[in-house]
Write the structure tokens for this entry.
Amino acid sequence: MTVASILDPLENILRHVLVWLGPHGTIGLPWAWSIVALTLIVRIIIVPLAVKQIHSMQNLQRYAPQMKELQQKYKHDKQKLNEELMKFYREHKINPAASCLPILVQIPVFFSLYLVLKHSSRFIGPADNTHWLGLISITEKATAGWGPLLIVVYAGSQLASGYFMSTTMEKTQRILMLLLPIFVVPFIVRFQTGLVLYWVTTNLWTVGQGLITRRLVPKTPVAAPARRSSRTPPREEEPDRVAAKTASAAAAQPQAAARRVRRKKKRARR
């Protein structure tokens, strides 16, 4: 069973939606803008996964100091570190994999759309307008005409979306995420412009989602335990402990007075 046959159901769904959005369908959009609209529909459908992704990133940011302490504590024991991290995730209900769910969902959509555009001659006529902004045809490769300009837009949008998606990653992982567009561009240029347009649109959605999340959702960092110093006021003790200390001090006073009397008598004898 090939990958294409596995993606057949999804390919059929995307083709029907694209035709419904297209110039021969109910909505009547140009083919290029139909892909943009299809991308927005896909992103709206996976909004629940995006919400989980946002909550997961917030939890990772919130508990980052504690996780860093665990990494420092068990840096020489990888197995123990993994065990403690998994235990920490369970205790605080953190799901690190949730941040990858939207991307994992979009991968089969991307390849299914590739198959739809590959077989676009079945529903796109030779006289149909397939150009985006009058510059690039969605059925041509991204290297044709003004395609390289769209590649530049893709690289910028991928860099921006990677910035928002890598906020909870370690420094090395974040650098790799930001350098991803450089490694992906040689593969992207081989695809049709419609696929690049799909990925540019989803990147811009991710950027907008990141900006809205940063503005509307407040950060809730976990307060680190305060360190005591010479200027730190003493903590208020429980009433039982205070009473016990007072009673012990009162009981010790007669004994201390008796000791002082004995010392005075010894000195007087001398």
